[in-house]
Each structure stands twice: as structure tokens, then as C-alpha cells.
Amino acid sequence: MLFTILLGLISSILLIPFGKRFKSSWSILLPFVPTVLFIYYLGYIPKVASGLTYFQEINWVPSLGVNFNLKLDGLSLLFCLLITGIGTGIFFYARTYLKGHPYFDRFFGYLYLFMSAMLGLVLSDNILLLFIFWELTSISSFFLIGFNNDQEASRKSAMTALTITGMGGFFLLAGLILIGNVAGTFKISELIEYRDVILNHPQYPLILGLIFLGAFTKSAQFPFHFWLPGAMKAPTPVSAYLHSATMVKAGIYLLARFFPVLSGTDLWTYTLMGIGGFTMLYSAIHSLFRIDLKSILAFTTISALGMLVFLLGIGTKQAVIAASVFILVHALYKATLFLVTGIVDHETGTRDITRLSGLKKVLGPVALAAGLAALSSAGLPSTFGFIGKDLIYEATLHVESHWILILTVIAVATNICLVAAGFMAGFKPFIGSLPQEFEKLHLPYKSMWIPPLILGGLGLIFGLFPGFIGNYLSYQTANSIYAGDTEMHLAIWHGFNTVLILSLVTLAAGTFLYFINKPSAEKVGFIEKFEKISPQQIFTGYANDIVKFSERFTNFFHNGYLRSYHMKIILFAEGLLIYKLWQSGPIKIVFDNLTPLTIYEVAVVIILLGALLIVVSTPSRLTSVVAMSVIGYCICLMYVFYSAPDLAMTQFTIDTLSTVLFVLVLYKLPSFLNLASARERYRDSIVALGFGAILSIIALKVLYEPIKTETSDFYGENAYILAKGKNVVNLILADFRGIDTMFETVVLGIAALGVYSLLKLRLKSSEKE
Amino acid sequence: MRSIILQTATRYLLPILLLFSFFLLLRGHYYPGGGFVGGLVASIAFVLHSFANGTEATMKILKRKPLSLIPVGLGISAVSVVLPTFFGLPPMTGLWWEEKVPVIGMIGSALFFDLGVYLVVIGVVLTILFTISLTKD
Predict the structure, then answer these.
(1) Does the N terminus or the C terminus of chain A have fewer Cβ atoms within 10 A?
(2) B81–A727: do the CB atoms touch at under 8 Å?
(3) Considering CB atoms only, which of B36, B96, B135 is closest to A763?
(4) How many whole angstroms separate alpha carbon A583 and alpha carbon A712?
(5) CA A663, A666, A667, A668 torsion: positive or negative?
(6) What is the ipTM of this complex?
């Protein structure tokens, strides 16, 4: 299983050096990876269908409890098949769709990265691992939404999506860590044993809230739904793959994965039913007012995600069955509709449904795929959508009696809107008379229209033989969500009952709605009037306020004057130290512990004071720099007196070099100017003297503090045994804490690069003038 | 402002100081010294030379840009960090040559780590100083 995750990552990295070749002659290899993975996961179907679950464990950071634990059960397998199966179609499609694009290679790099991240997400059996992959999917989605990075709207949408999903990610991380601490394990498959502990823990509402925030942001639930329509700025294959079939379902996956652990409480049920129910109805109605094909599909996707959240909220056996089937139903027809939209957009250059009509005459097979998908989405008997819809009604009819009516009404109303929206997207552009401007269109390459046709066709095949897909896949999916036997048996005909009547009513009412609802630009304008009170506006408003605040904050603290930085840093340190000293009680200084003064020390201190006097009084920069280095050397001598040769040597060389540096820089500065007024000088001297006084007090205070020698003893005892050296200072630097040193040298290197590039850059710009 | 005395002195001081810096590097494991100080002393040697003969002349001795020492040094340090993992040990474990080498003494992976630090320090100091001194206004 691990190799399936790594394969995508490696392919993604390979695209960096070989990008040029993949753009032309090697591009046929690109869809190879998802195809292989798809076949690999198809092979698991019979094994998983017989009830087996596969585990794989690789040690990663065992000391932190983070291991590479992978698990493949019915739920994971469904998602793996969706990711790799739809992925295969998308890769073939995108290869043609983006042919000749300058960033063709980059696009596939992101797509591979996403595929790996998504596979990792659904295979992870460790919650921290799951989180890492969760974030990776957000990041790859950010790159893909902002793929057309020369358009401001794309960049903005990408930022919105990343902010919302990233924010959700933070909440999720907090929730996952809490749940791990409460249960004492980070393994998802072990969490279920601690179900009672978690449900009765006082932190349960907090855990649930945080995990819900993670799931709702990712799966675009109200009020976080607005990033998804924005994400439609991505190239259409991306919308089909990430923003309808797979990534947005990660939130659903999360809820489904934690269903056996966290569900069953009122909090779970009513939150999910409320949010999911509202989202599905709200965005289903919204979709009717849109005229952009992708926009319609975006809102119906949000609605479908709401439906899944709603079903998981109901949480009965029937609801779990309905959810596990509806994931597949929706992925199939929605991906098809998106791919069809991509073709229409690619060929006609518009996605405006008021302008598109009669395209079936020129794009025959595409129209067939769209029709199949629209029918499946409408739930016509004999399509897979029909079975999905039946199961949803079955679920809403099997709840506590006082909820039946309201839940069923919401579900029916949503579905009526979805039927109409599905027809708008799948039928409207293809029927009617063909406008003259589109008469010369021709069918695109096969690699573009075959994937949607297959996906659309599967909707029909699964609908005709539901028992087959039910027994082999959906049954185990539902079992893994429910963590028990769901006794699911999908059949094409359930007899003449309430569910069938509801289905037919939905279909009839939806068709009627489609005929009376004439989408137009005015309606789009009408719905946009409500934008002012939409969550999007509120969020953007907050975001702008934060930007303004941080601007003021930065301008105050980061004003570009070195003297002001010094002042702030020293004042802050003084404040903290005074507080700490005051807290630690009265200061007593024991002079008995002091060693007697020697003549050398007195001499050095006198030199030091003299140099200090010169520094503060001299009008010449050069003199002050030299006097500063005299002070530095005096301190070095102090180190020598108190037997710290390593320190002394380093200080000596550093002082020498900084003097040289100062001289080099000063040489280029304009002549000395006294900018500070007398008052400012007094203020500065008070701050400086205060700081000196505080440090002196601390130094004297240290003398009577009990000395803890554990650390120095450890190094003293182990230096020769463990590191075979005698110079403890150097051993700490180069051996015991070598990683620190390593990163410090990296920082040094970065600093040098910074100086180098800043000065060279300045040189070039001055050369231009 | 070229001084003939300084120029003559640096001709002998440069190799001696470099040797001294290398000596500091090698003895660091047992006595005061180490890669950081060694690197600083070596850079002072070059800085002194550049004062006496001009930065261009020092650059000629160095042959390459001091900037290129940084990745080389980081690379050597990184290799010494990762090397133990090939022997199934955690990274940064000290590896030691069985036999003593004349003059230098025991050689271990820590020495290579220090050598990396030494080169990075020279690279950083010389890059900063030489870039500034070569900037023409």
C-alpha cells in the first residue's frame, strides 16, 4: 500500500528534471501511474468484499507515537478506487485539455502530489499521519486553483480556499491531538475500543466541535461553503477531480472514519443534521439561479456534500447505507458533468447556459455522457442515481417518528432542485436549435470524451446491476462506517412503496421546475444582491481588518530605525527581568563569596571604563568603533582570567572581524551627524544604565543561587566515554548538540547569501541608471 | 595606502595563520579550539591579506568565490550527520577510525562535521566582508 502513495510522489518529483520531455514525447506516460494504481486496487475488491482488512506498519517516529500505519478496509477501498479510477480518466483528459500549456508539466506535478496525498489520507491509520496528508491535499489544491496565476481572480480564490481549509486544518489538528490524548492512542483502528471513554469525557464536545470544523471547512459546509464556487477558477479537470469527486469528500471521509468512535450522541446527530440539512437545501436553491455551468455544478456539489453530512448525522443503519452508496453515485455523475462542461468550454469558449444550445448535433457522444449523468443525478429508475435517491428516502423515513416529516420534506425539496439543476447542466446546452456560431464545432480528441462517457455509462450499468456493486463494494464500505453488519442488499426494484412514490414525485417536480425556471443574467444579479450578508463578505471583512491591524502593528514595531529596535528590545527585556526579580523576592547579595580582586582585573576594568567614556563622547565614528573593540578585548581578557579559553578565542576573533566590518561599512557612510537631541540622549542613557544595573544584580544574585550541576556533570562524565574527546565545549557543539550547530551554520549561510544578493542586486540596479 | 611592511609581513603571515587555524580545527576535540574559531582565524588571515594587497588580489589567491565554500561546508557537515545511518546507527552517531593517524591523532566523523563548520565560517565571513568592500558607490 505504501508504494501506491510513494509512486505519485516520486512521479511528481520526476517531473522537475524531466518536465520538458513529459511536455512532448513522454506525455503519454503520464496517465500510466493512476492506471496501474487503479488496477492494483481493483485487485483488492474480492478480498475486501469477503470481509478482510489489510494493515501495514512502518516505523517512522516511534518515540512520538507516529508510525506509518496504513489500513485498507471497505471505506478506504471505495475512496482509493475513486481517487485512482476517476484519476485515470482525469489524467487522460487533462493531457489533451492542457496540451501546449506552458505549465503543462507543473500541472501534472501538482496533480500527482494531490493524488498521493489523497491516497495517504484515506489509507492512514494514524491520526497524525492523516493530518499530514490532509494538509498536503489543501496545499496541492491551492496550487491547482491558482494554476492560472496570471489572473487575479484565480490567485484570490486560491488564497480563500487555502485560508478556509488551512484554518479548518488547525482546528482539526487540535481536535485530533485531544482525541489522541483522551484515548491514549493515535491509531484510528484502536480508537473504537475507547469509544465509551471518549463519549463520556468532559472534553468530548470540544473534540467534536474541532473535528467538525475541520470537516466542514474541507467539505464546504455552510458557512464555509463559499471557497468551493471560487475554486472553480481551476482548470476544469481539477474541478472534476478535486472539487467534486475526491478532495472535498475528505471531510465526509473524516466524519465517516470517526463515525464509529464519536457518533450516537445528540450533539453529533443534531449538529450534522442541522448543518448538513441547511447546506444541502441552501445551495440546491442557489444552483437554480446560476447561468455559469461550473457555478451550477459547484453549488450542486455543495448540496450533495451537505446531503452526505446530513445522512451521517442521522446515523441510522439505513442512513449509513445511503451515504456509502451516494458517495459513489455522486462522484460518478458529477465528475462526468464537470468533464463535459470542460469539453463545452474548450470547444465553444463559453460556459453560459443561456448562450449554449443544440450542441448534441456537433458533440454527439459528449451529449450522451452528459445525458446519462443528468439522468443519474435526477434519479431516473434504472440509473444508479435512482438507487442512491431511494436509499436517502429510506433513511429519512426510518428515523424517530416526529422527525420523519421534516427530514423527508427537506430531502425531497433538495432533490427536486438538484434534478432541475442537473438537467440545466446536462441537458440544456445540448438540446434545442444549434446557434450558427457553433455549427463548425467538431468533436475533440477521444481521450477527452471517452472518460466522461465511461463514467456516465457506469452510472447506468451500476443502476441496472445494483446487486453486483452493492455486494462487492458498497456493502463493505457501509460496514466499515457503521462498524458492524449493515445487512445491505441493493436491488433495482423494492416494490411499490412510499419510497418509490417519493422518487417519482421528485423526478416529476424537478422536471417541472426545470421547464418553468428560465435562468438568466437578471436572476444572477438578483441573487448577488444577497452577497452583502453572505458569510463570504463577513469573512473577507474580517480578513481585511486583520490585514489592516497587522499593517499598523508592523509599522509601529518595524519602522526601519535600528535605534528604535534596540530601544524596544532592551525595554522589553528590562520589563521582563524587573518583573521576574520583583517576583523572586528581596535581593540579598552575599559579598563573602566574591573572590579577591587582582591587579590585572583592576587594570582591565580601568581600561574598559576609559574606552567606554570615549565611545559615548567621541564625535568620530572611527574612534568609537576602535574604542568598542577595546571594550571587546577587555572582556576577552576577563574570559582568560576566569579560564574560559574557548570563549576568549572566539570573542577575540569575532571582535577583530566586526571592527573590520564596521570600518568597511563606515568608510562608505556620509559624515557623522548628531541626530539625537539632548533629551533623547538622557532618555537613552537612563535605559542603558537601567539595563546594566539589572544585569549586574542578576550576576550578583547568581552567586547565592543553588547551583544545579546535572547538565555540566553529564557532559563532564560522558564527554570521553561517548564522544571520545576532552574539550567539552567543542564536543557539545560538534557532537552532543550537533544538529543545532548544523542548523546554525545553515542560518549563517543564509545570512551571507542575503548580504551577497542584496549588495549585488543594488549594484545591478545602480549600473542600469 | 599600501604599506610595504604589511605586504611583506602578510606574505609570511598568511600561510602561518592558515596553518594555525587548521591546527585549531584539529585540536578542537581535546583542547581549546574547534571549527568555529579555526574558521574565524582563517578568515582573519585572508582579511589581513586583502588589507595589505587589495581585495582583488586576495580573490585571486582564493581562485573561487568565497560563497562557494558555504555549500561545500554544509555538504561535508551533512554527510557526516547522515553517514552513520548507512551503518544502521542513528544519525549523528560518532564514528571513529580504528587506528591513530600520525600527527592528527584519532579521526572521527565529528572532525568532518567540524571541518564543514570551518569552511562555512570562512565562506560566510569572506562573502560578507568582500562583497561590502568590493561594492563601489
Answers:
(1) C
(2) no
(3) B135
(4) 28
(5) positive
(6) 0.87
